[in-house]
Amino acid sequence: MMNQKILVIEDAKNLCDLIKLYLNKEGFEVLISHNGLEGLKLFQQEAPNLVLLDIMLPGLDGWQVCREIRKMSDIPIIIITAKDEEFDKVLGLELGADDYIVKPIKFKELVARIRAVLRRFHPTGLEVNKLVFPGMVIDADTYTVTVNKQEITLSPKELELLYFLASHPNKVFTRQQLLDQVWGYDFAGTTRTVDVHIERLRKKLKPHRQANQIKTVWGVGYKFEVRHDD
């Protein structure tokens, strides 16, 4: 099996050297760019399995790089930054990042986060791989969602959240339960992460109106509602 390829886009060369050393020991192949624009070009050339992305970059900043990557790929992105404000975390998630790590980096945690995100991007052992509802098909094997025979583009995390909710139709889950089940128990983010992804899902599904919808249960959480017509 070929090593998984990690692209690190970070302008701090000493940190890049440490990340590469540590990830190489864990069996990953590591590519490095110190410039946002060059990092995008390297992404297109090398097709990595995951991107570690700093925010403060020359050329293009990390927000711009994240936007551009999401235009062409759903490959996982983990933001690494010294910016610890909630606004920055929410912005990163809204732009399509899958996780957010604040410096100084703890390398064991970094490896755990990388492995967790990669597992979620390529899930194994799912009991049911395809969920079929009137007008909607959610396929976990191919990571596709089809609504009224039209494929909808979702990020990996959006699809995983939709798949989990749809796997338990009409059951209400709290935000914390969704964090634990979809992001993993080791995820350090807040329940606001769930709200951001739910909002993005609704925006993408809104043009394709149908009976199966993500509903808010006020004071509790969310559910995937399936209506049964008499």
From TrEMBL:
Cited function: May play the central regulatory role in sporulation. It may be an element of the effector pathway responsible for the activation of sporulation genes in response to nutritional stress. Spo0A may act in concert with spo0H (a sigma factor) to control the expression of some genes that are critical to the sporulation process.
Residues bearing PTM 4-aspartylphosphate: D54
Keywords: DNA-binding, Phosphoprotein, Transcription, Transcription regulation, Two-component regulatory system
BP GO annotations: regulation of DNA-templated transcription
Name the record gives this protein: Stage 0 sporulation protein A homolog
InterPro entries the record matches: CheY-like_superfamily, OmpR/PhoB-type_DNA-bd, Sig_transdc_resp-reg_C-effctor, Sig_transdc_resp-reg_receiver, WalR-like, WH-like_DNA-bd_sf
Organism this protein belongs to: Calderihabitans maritimus
DNA-binding region listed in the record: 128-226
GO molecular function, a single term: phosphorelay response regulator activity
UniProt-listed Pfam families: Response_reg (PF00072), Trans_reg_C (PF00486)
Domain OmpR/PhoB-type: 128-226
Protein origin, superkingdom: Bacteria
SMART domains with a match to the protein in the record: REC, Trans_reg_C
Gene Ontology cellular-component annotations: cytosol; protein-DNA complex
